[in-house]
Amino acid sequence: MKWRKFDDVRTVKEFIETDQKIPSLIYEVAEAISVEVRAKHNDFVSKKSYVEHSGLACFSPVINIMRHPLWGRNQETYGEDPYLSGVYAAHFASGLRGTHPRFYRAAAICKHFDAHGGPEDLPVSRLSFNAIVPERDLRMTYLPQFKACAQGGALGVMCSYNSLNGIPACANKKLLTDILRTEWGFDGFVVSDAGAIEFIIEWHHYLNNIIDTAAACVKAGLNLELHPGYPQGIFDSLEQVVNDGKLTKEMLVERVKPLFLARMKFGEFDPPETNPYTQLNLSDVMTPEHQALSLKTAVESFVLLKNKGFLPMRDRLKSIAIVGPFADNPDQIMGNYAPNPDPKTIFTPKTGLSPLADTSYVVFGCSDTKCLDYDVEGIIKAVSKADVTFLCVGTGQAVETENFDRPSMKLPGYQPFLIQDVIKKALGPVVLLVFSGGPVNIVEAVSADNVVAIIQCFFPNQGTGVALYQMITMKSSLDNPAGRLPFTWYATDEQIPSMTNYSMVNGTYRYFNGDPLFPFGYGLSYTTFQYNDLVLTPTKVKAGDNVTVTFNITNTGSLSGSEVYEVYMSWLNATVPTPMYQLVGFNRTLIDKGQTVAISTQINSQQMAVWVDGKGFVIEPGDMVVYAGGQLPNQKVQVSSNILRAVFTIYT
Questions:
Q1: Hey, how many other C-beta atoms are within 10 angstroms of the C-beta on 518?
Q2: What InterPro entries has UniProt attached to this entry (predicted)?
């Protein structure tokens, strides 16, 4: 396998040719993951150790829609758009699989199927929650990314804890058989979430005994039970279920076949020498190439939310302050379900940003990210004598994680007071670094004059500090930020929809009527771009045909950098409710200063379809508006580049 190293010597031309597509990065990440998964698996097998987390079927990707900003598991998702999530999911599944015609290196399990995006615990438990979802929203929002994942190379799908319209997902024949297998042609297996079958009895009270529950789940399409250490699993009773006549032996055999098919694709029954993936070993784990890829991924994921011309920083400073609960917190910058990297490879903001100055004043201010205590004197002392302050705030998996939702967008504990004090007392300009999976309340920092830059960092991984250094100093043109928000950053808690209302009315950018603090798809650069020459071919399209979209992007600034273009579509004449805007294309391309690049992308006919109850997906005649730019159209908060608009007409 040939890996591309992250360095400063590659030319703009090389990167345009080799790194043009965003999905290629997530494919590379998945490749690296599967190499290490297979290498560790081979080591476990050599030791005859078959413990948890030693297999090849990965419980990933999480592709539930980030429909609510306070859901505890938002950090695990790809954001709030089904198309975006589907593109990423398909490339992730393909990257895990590998390129061998017979064997899988590792495999994806798409989860959690379906209509599972909160609550975890507020206001009710996920273990008993019943998501009431209109059919149109199910088809146009909650299902598309699972179809992309299932058809993109995944071997498995995990059914979720919740019920969907009154039927637990793991006993839901409509989901597991009618849609997944009959409509989509999926031939892999379905595994339950941990304990989900037991919870059909204990929490949902949908059935009241083990025998009927086991029979219902198998008939619905479930292949495998994942149970969390109970003395006996529900599926342990399957022999009795068959003997009682509630399930045929033939159906049981059919449910077992996909499990053995997966094992065959992993090469379990073939001579090891015929499978090239059996040669991977622990020397393939945490290689320099993988560490470089991790660093590159962190840099490309940062989103620059505010910049008053302060970044990039070019000159070395005499002193800086690095303050806040994320200043030097190696555990919390990793996010939920992160691996355990070698501590020598972990770089926090403290270790990464200290080289910016001769002297660094580092004060955490809080003992942990919950920030239930506050060293106000230490914070003020540090920031009042530093040339520049880097303020590191956020949530972390201690606050934002599986099992726990956030009660509001307010930063935890004393962190809001920390921001206020730094704004009031800092000697020099302040750069705010936010570490979170979802939006938090930073309105005060957005409006403060001395907060000269804000970076949404998410949970960047072990290379956090170095990645921040490279972006803040723009070490190379590759470090010029181009990340985009994959969610709507609401301005206030009052704008947030109900956690339990699964209708899409006024939810996510596709249906939201208000003015957010930062819209979906928002992100700044150190340079500027101009869009020109939008052409749609054809402008009159027969239903079922595709439309080609072409336009030019010019880097009009003084620095080379990447631009992520975004293509959106709106329905003008639909007979049913549709999104106000729907992302239909995106990509990342590196553009040298003064250079113009030609872009061509396609809107396929399936993207034009709307769900009509009683008819299914229909491509209706009428006008369709296409927008091309570096942002979501018609927003109060905008980046400096323009947005192009054109119309094509569908006829039947």
A1: 23
A2: BXL, Fn3-like, GH, Glyco_hydro_3_AS, Glyco_hydro_3_C, Glyco_hydro_3_C_sf, Glyco_hydro_3_N, Glyco_hydro_3_N_sf
Under a CB-based contact definition with an 8 Å cutoff, are residues 152 and 186 in contact? no
Reported pTM: 0.94
Q: Are 471 and 479 in contact (CB under 8 A)?
A: yes
Structure tokens at 146: 């699972």
CB 515 within 8 A of CB 567: no
Cα–Cα distance, 182 to 164 (Å, whole number): 19
Catalytic residue among 81, 114, 193, 405: 193
CB 590 within 8 A of CB 631: no
**Strand duo 156-159 + 163-164: pairing:** unpaired
CA dihedral over 421, 427, 430, 433, signed as positive or negative: negative
Contact status, residue 321 vs residue 361, Cβ threshold 8 Å: yes
Nearest by Cα to 303 from 446, 481, 131, 463: 481
Tokens for 381, please give them. Answer: 């002392």
CB 523 within 8 A of CB 303: yes
How far is Cα of residue 465 from the mean position of the Cα atoms in its chain? Answer: 21
Whole-number Å distance between alpha carbons of 102 and 106: 12
Q: Would you state the torsion angle of the CA atoms of residues 105, 79, 469, 416, taken in this order, to the nearest 10 degrees?
A: -140
DSSP 222-287: --B---SS-SS-GGGGHHHHHHTTSS-HHHHHHHHHHHHHHHHHHTTTS-GGG-GGGG--GGGSS-
- Where b means 16+ CB within 10 Å and e means fewer, 529-546 reads bebeebebeeeebeeeee
DSSP 8-state code for residue 378 = H
Q: How far is CA 156 from the centre of its chain?
A: 19
Q: Please, which residues have CB within 8 angstroms of residue 610's CB and are 6 or more apart in sequence? A: 140, 571, 574, 576, 578, 617, 618, 619, 620
Mean pLDDT by 10 residues, the chain (652 residues): 28 32 84 97 95 93 97 97 97 96 97 96 96 98 97 96 98 98 97 96 96 98 90 92 96 97 97 96 96 96 98 96 97 88 93 97 96 97 98 95 95 98 98 98 98 97 96 96 98 95 96 97 98 98 97 98 98 97 96 97 96 96 98 97 98 95
Q: What are phi and psi of 585, to 5 degrees?
A: -170, 145
The answer to whether residues 371 and 418 touch, using CB atoms and an 8 Å cutoff, is: yes
- 315 classed as catalytic: no
